[in-house]
Amino acid sequence: KAGVTQTPRYLIKTRGQQVTLSCSPISGHRSVSWYQQTPGQGLQFLFEYFSETQRNKGNFPGRFSGRQFSNSRSEMNVSTLELGDSALYLCASSLDRDVRTEAFFGQGTRLTVV
Amino acid sequence: AQSVTQPDIHITVSEGASLELRCNYSYGATPYLFWYVQSPGQGLQLLLKYFSGDTLVQGIKGFEAEFKRSQSSFNLRKPSVHWSDAAEYFCAVVNGGSQGNLIFGKGTKLSVKP
């Protein structure tokens, strides 16, 4: 069974640009969550999607957005990139929204903003 | 608001020695608690979880953790550390009910001396 796939693995962007990251969950999983990981702030929750609807959102500015498609694949978008957006972005998928169902993490997308 | 504290940023142990990583949480009700491990360049892998019942939980790779409500702690232990255990370890608690997002501690980096 394939794991959670995040593409691309590495990305370098310039300040002011926008970026789209992709996450393909494990087959059959309907919930996808996104986390940002930085050395200073650690792991912080961005948002969660289930059945194509955003169910939960973290404390991030509106420049961070996402969506989920009917096949449960998810994308997140960051507009007007800032240097502080440099981070590892992790996606997690699970069968449903109950946290007692194990969440599986992808390897992440390393975004560098220069 | 819920929070997780991992007091040790970096721990070094000798191979074969025992290990205990500390985790303290802040949450009013019975928490849902997790320990994850992250190897360099990888995503997060679930080691073990606690929802209710027996306060000593067994996980993968020989790890165990004990939930102590009186101390608001969920410390991770391993009797004999292997060089392959070198990684970063994250304690997490669910934000709110069973459909909340994960709140992570800042992590403890484990180094293993030969």
Provide the residue-averaged pLDDT of chain B: 93
Q: Termini separation of chain A (Å)?
A: 37 Å
Helicity of chain B, in percent? under 10%
Q: Which spans of chain A have pLDDT < 50 for at least 5 consecutive residues?
A: none
Using the CA coordinates, give the radius of gyration of chain B.
13 Å
Q: How much of the sequence of chain B is in beta strands? A: over 45%
Assembly form of the protein: heterodimer
The major β-sheet of chain A equals: 7 strands, mixed
Would you identify the regions of chain B where 5 or more consecutive residues have pLDDT less than 50? none
Question: Level of helix content of chain A?
Answer: under 10%
Describe this structure in words.
The complex is a heterodimer of chains A (114) and B (114). In chain A, the strands form 2 sheets. In chain A, strands 2, 4, 5, 6, 9, 10 and 11 form a 7-stranded mixed β-sheet that branches. In chain A, strands 1-3-8-7 form a 4-stranded antiparallel β-sheet, with no helix packed on it. Chain A is an all-beta fold and 114 residues long. Chain A starts with a strand and ends with a strand. Chain A contains no helices and 11 strands. In chain A, strand 4 (31-38) and strand 5 form a beta hairpin. In chain B, a hairpin with a 5-residue loop joins strand 7 and strand 8 (64-68). Chain B has 114 residues and is mostly beta strands. Chain B has strands spanning 3-5, 10-14, 19-21, 24-26, 33-38, 44-50, 56-58, 64-68, 73-78, 87-94, 102-104, 108-113. Chain B has no helices and 12 strands. The relative contact order of chain B is 0.32. Classes of the chains: A mainly beta (114), B mainly beta (114). Chains A and B meet through strand 5 and strand 10 of A and strand 6, strand 10 and strand 11 of B.
